[in-house]
Predict the structure.
Amino acid sequence: MEERSTRELVIETARDVKWICRTLRRMEEEGTCREERLRALEGWQSEQVGESRRDRQIAAGAGGIVGGAVAIVLQMFGWG
């Protein structure tokens, strides 16, 4: 087995450390991008849930108004 000099080991270690630092930086950047996309999806989902809830509330309100109007008309004709 070939022995390497201390200088060669230091150079190899420095190269490895630089590679590790670049890789970690890239992973952090990708993590930030994923977080941003996740937050955007969560916001979109919240909007969809809010719109759906609002639509149901409007439909329920309209149904209540129509039901109330029908009850008044029926009372006016003496059927209620």
